[in-house]
User: Which sequence fits this backbone?
């Protein structure tokens, strides 16, 4: 009952505001004649009046020419909607229909006149575009709805001009939520689709609360927003946020999400505090002086607007709506001392490439020092005179010890930097060398590296872990898997782990063992091979097999965290790629053999601790594109033109370069 | 919600003076108040006219009794073997969507109270894709097609359909609520789900585009039939599924045609003509067709040609031909193939930021 009263008051309020009080008066005067469904009738009249009130501020937007397919998806080609925001011809619409880069955009005004429109600016953070048309007579700008009036549950209408340039289409719903998509959008259950993108979401008084847009809520990947049509969830960008950005767009400047360049790692977004795990070299955060390990205490657009944050979610709500070029102020706690930093957000962070010294260190469990066991040829370390037996003590002035690993130190550096490395020589003397860093090498490096030999400890002798060709349990799936564990395996010496998605079909285990056992023994690796459940090919769901194998192997054997790689042969290659890209912080390397990769794919840019290294072999032309994209994204890729013949695995010329690449994975 | 409770709230001393105050202000200060009032009355005549004595809930139940479940052919190749029908007139006729479900000698009709009746197809109207079934002595109360009911954007409506075949036996068809989104022509032009009907439809924001819903009733707040739910259809222009109903005037005309035996297969789709306009004959050369949707940009115009004389120039972008949108070079050729060479053409071209109308007379 209370809800009904609220709705009724809302409707009556809306109607009185239209100045149609007389009409209500008539309703009241004629009470006896009224039926019992008057509330429904009043609501209906309010919907219609609000639509009438707003429809002259909505225009039809049409595009001509331009590709129909964008990222293998058909882009809507029918007319769409736009909302007039100024009398002199500024129109806000959705970027949705401009993805195909049309040759021409026209606007049909409510009076039926067609005008050529210029696309002046786009807001890629909110999927909005600003059009300009020349007008003879002033247009009727939409009236904004003040957000202070908004209440979740109130009636809203999604309006559009797809069907008709004169009469707006109207879908009714309620305001479902505010502050969605990291504070960028409001949400409604009205039907929001290409039929009204670019049109306004209006309140019962016909005032625009926001502009309808297919903003990506981050739950789906890019280009999949279409799946959200008519699913009870749709978004609009609040009107005030658009009006605030009009001057920028009007000047012809596009708007992009602002990036800061620091990272945090958390499994629970609502847990705090926000301790930074890394800062991208060259990023706004790095330039401002923010460092890995800092705790973010407060964030705001300016020093005056700083708001205290307790968890990651609160910070994302403040960072989410910020654009490239906007300022950000942060109060940071560094070892108990607080200081405020300022920076300007950017559109693109500098491409991160993993800095590389060219040394392998002792990874034996219990090793207290990062003692160099090999120096890679052609490496910065070799040029600087670092030698086997040297123990790395400090990198660029920061201590390296049991708690501060070399990779953590390197991650905060730019791969182009020249840095000091302090080492303690085998004779105990300390010395500092100057090293010109570079990125992880892309070429096949031939070098004589013998892994140090170890005497088995008492624990090793008591260890019962299976060796040789071992059948692996996978649980409740049809797939089968086996591992090649060297006969010399010792749990005190961490081993590398290569998880392979073999080509479809049953695998010859002896063939695999012949090919890999000598390498596994000499360089302390374990090779786990998964077979597809269907002999004809892998299915997408089977990507999970990689997770199961990785989990089982790391629990059962002693695995070196810097030497976990995935690999895939032919039909298995896509799964290897996906496994690694889903968990780049776990997989250091990906081997793709004669890969079957989709024509179009997305690749997240390389980040510290997520720098996956690729080895790609095969003669397909499509590989060139993959290599190009991966390298541009900051990844190291070693390319080999040889096609692997699975039946002749042990003699394959691919094995040599591949195994050398695997050896190099652990190099810093 | 009943009228009584609403009445009480207006007698509420806290609200009533406020209301009178607003009323007074509105009367004194808004010169166009009467205009607005008339506008609102035009939008919904029911605000000032008497409605039925039934509650909304009672109206719905009453309407559900005039909607039947139909079962016929199908069940294979993804085709459903069920749909919905609407009893009209004296109840002996059932209006439904013309589909493969009706490809049987006798269509099984199951009424709201679980009676199973056999119906014969009295006739079909291919133009509207509607069919009429005859069930003598059905005992059903039919919707009145003669009522002057016109759907309006923003109007509240209910769809009553047997979507997904969820209702069986003596179960009533399902009711869904929504509003009229738009009233517009059905502009589906391509795709596997072709529709012969190209006329005006009521687009609704109710998810009726589901198996079995075709042939269902769309009713207004007074329980009057405003439309019949159409077949499952995707709008090829915007790429999304369309929820729509055929409006009552279209239905009524269709029923009249069926009953008088005057239906025909006449399709409204534009056919190619024997001697169409050709770009070369007009003297227009477009930029080469290299993209999936190459825009219809003019590369050059032959001097002393028809197009040249009409004022067309190189670099013009052709947007409309006889008010039909030209989305690409191929699209332009398609449109021209439907226009007789002896007929004149009305073009809209874009030259720079200017839109120019050009009349081409052969």
Assistant:
């Amino acid at each position: 009952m209370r809800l009904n009263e609220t709705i009724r008051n809302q409707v009556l309020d809306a109607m009185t505001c239209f100045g149609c009080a007389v009409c209500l008066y008539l309703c009241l005067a004629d009470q006896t004649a009224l039926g019992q469904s008057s509330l429904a009738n009043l609501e209906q009249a309010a919907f219609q009046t609000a639509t009438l009130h707003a429809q002259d501020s909505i225009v039809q937007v049409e595009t001509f020419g331009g590709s129909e397919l964008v990222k293998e998806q058909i882009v809507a080609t029918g007319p769409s909607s736009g909302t007039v925001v100024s009398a002199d011809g500024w129109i806000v619409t959705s970027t949705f229909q401009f993805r195909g880069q049309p040759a021409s955009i026209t606007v049909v005004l409510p009076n039926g006149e067609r005008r050529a429109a210029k696309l002046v600016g786009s807001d890629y953070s909110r999927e909005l575009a600003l059009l300009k048309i020349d007008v003879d007579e002033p247009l009727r700008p939409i009236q904004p709805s003040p957000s202070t009036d908004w209440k979740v549950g109130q009636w809203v209408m999604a309006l559009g001009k797809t069907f008709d340039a004169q009469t707006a289409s109207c879908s009714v719903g309620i305001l479902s939520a505010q502050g969605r998509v990291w504070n960028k959008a409001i949400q409604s259950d009205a039907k929001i689709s290409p039929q009204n993108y670019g049109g306004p979401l209006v309140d019962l008084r016909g005032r625009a609360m926001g502009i309808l847009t297919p903003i990506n809520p981050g739950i789906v990947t890019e280009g999949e927003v279409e799946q959200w049509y008519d699913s009870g969830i749709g978004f609009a960008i609040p009107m005030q946020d658009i009006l605030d950005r009009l001057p920028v767009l009007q000047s012809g400047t596009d708007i992009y999400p602002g990036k800061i360049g620091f990272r945090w790692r958390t499994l629970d977004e609502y847990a705090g505090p926000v301790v930074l795990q890394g800062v991208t070299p060259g990023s706004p955060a790095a330039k401002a002086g923010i460092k890995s390990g800092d705790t973010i205490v407060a964030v705001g657009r300016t020093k005056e607007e700083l708001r205290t944050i307790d968890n990651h979610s609160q910070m994302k709500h403040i960072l989410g709506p910020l654009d490239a070029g906007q300022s950000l102020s942060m109060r940071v706690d560094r070892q108990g001392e607080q200081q405020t930093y300022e920076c300007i957000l950017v559109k693109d962070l500098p491409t991160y490439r993993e800095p590389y010294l060219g040394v392998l260190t002792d990874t034996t469990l219990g090793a207290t020092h990062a003692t160099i066991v090999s120096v890679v040829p052609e490496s910065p370390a070799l040029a600087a005179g670092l030698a086997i037996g040297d123990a790395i003590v400090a990198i660029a002035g920061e201590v390296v010890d049991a708690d501060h690993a070399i990779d953590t130190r390197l991650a905060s550096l730019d791969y182009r930097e020249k840095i000091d490395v302090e080492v303690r020589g085998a004779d105990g003397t300390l010395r500092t060398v100057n090293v010109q860093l570079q990125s992880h090498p892309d070429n096949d490096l031939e070098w004589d590296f013998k892994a140090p030999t170890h005497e088995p400890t008492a624990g090793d002798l008591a260890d019962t872990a299976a060796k040789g060709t071992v059948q692996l349990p996978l649980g409740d799936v049809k797939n089968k898997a086996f591992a090649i564990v060297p006969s010399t395996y010792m749990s005190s010496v961490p081993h590398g782990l290569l998880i392979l998605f073999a080509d479809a079909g049953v695998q010859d285990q002896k063939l695999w063992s012949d090919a890999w056992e000598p390498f596994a023994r000499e360089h302390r690796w374990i090779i786990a091979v998964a077979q597809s459940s269907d002999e004809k090919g892998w299915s997408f769901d089977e990507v999970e097999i990689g997770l199961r194998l990785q989990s089982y192997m790391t629990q059962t054997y002693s695995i070196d965290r810097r030497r976990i790689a995935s690999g895939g042969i032919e039909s298995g290659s896509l799964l290897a790629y996906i496994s690694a890209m889903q968990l780049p912080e776990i997989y250091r390397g990906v081997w793709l053999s004669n890969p079957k990769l989709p024509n179009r794919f997305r690749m997240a840019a390389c980040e510290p601790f997520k720098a996956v290294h690729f080895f790609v072999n095969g003669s397909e032309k499509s590989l060139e594109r993959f290599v190009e994209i991966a390298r541009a994204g900051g990844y190291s890729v070693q390319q080999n033109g040889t096609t692997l013949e699975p039946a002749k695995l042990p003699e394959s010329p691919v094995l040599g370069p591949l195994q050398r690449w695997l050896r190099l994975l652990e190099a810093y | 919600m009943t009228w009584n409770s609403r009445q009480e709230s207006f007698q509420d001393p806290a609200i009533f003076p406020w209301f009178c105050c607003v009323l007074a202000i509105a009367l004194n200060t808004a010169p166009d108040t009467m205009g607005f009032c008339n506008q609102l009355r035009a939008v919904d005549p029911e605000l000032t006219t008497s409605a039925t004595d039934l509650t909304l809930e009672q109206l719905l139940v009453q309407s559900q009794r005039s909607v039947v479940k139909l079962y016929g052919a199908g069940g294979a190749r993804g085709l459903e073997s069920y749909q919905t029908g609407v009893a009209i007139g004296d109840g002996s006729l059932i209006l439904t969507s013309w589909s493969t479900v009706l490809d049987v000698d006798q269509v099984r009709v199951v009424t709201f109270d679980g009676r199973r009746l056999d119906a014969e197809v009295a006739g079909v109207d291919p133009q509207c894709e509607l069919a009429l079934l005859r069930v003598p002595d059905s005992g059903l109360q039919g919707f009145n097609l003669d009522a002057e009911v016109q759907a309006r954007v923003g109007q509240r409506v209910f769809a009553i359909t047997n979507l997904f075949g969820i209702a069986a036996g003596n179960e009533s068809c399902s009711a869904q609520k929504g509003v009229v989104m738009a009233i517009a022509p059905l502009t589906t032009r391509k795709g596997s789900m072709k529709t012969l009907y190209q006329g005006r439809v009521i687009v609704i924001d109710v998810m009726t585009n589901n198996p079995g819903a075709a042939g269902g009733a769309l009713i207004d707040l007074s329980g009057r039939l405003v439309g019949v739910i159409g077949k499952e259809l995707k709008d090829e222009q915007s790429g999304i599924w369309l929820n729509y109903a055929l409006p009552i005037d279209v239905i009524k005309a269709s029923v009249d045609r069926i009953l008088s035996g005057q239906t025909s297969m006449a399709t409204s789709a534009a056919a190619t003509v024997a001697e169409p306009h050709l770009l070369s004959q007009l003297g227009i050369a477009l930029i080469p067709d290299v993209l999936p949707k190459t825009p219809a940009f003019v590369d050059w115009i032959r001097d002393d040609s028809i197009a040249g004389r009409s004022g067309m120039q190189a670099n013009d972008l052709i947007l409309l031909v006889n008010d039909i949108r030209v989305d690409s070079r191929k699209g332009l050729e398609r449109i021209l193939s439907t226009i007789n060479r002896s007929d004149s053409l009305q073009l809209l071209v874009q030259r720079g930021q200017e839109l120019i109308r050009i009349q081409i007379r052969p």
About this structure: Confidence is low (pLDDT under 50) at residues 1-51, 188-193 of chain B. The two ends of chain B are 66 Å apart (CA to CA). Chain B touches chain A through 78 residues (CB under 8 Å).
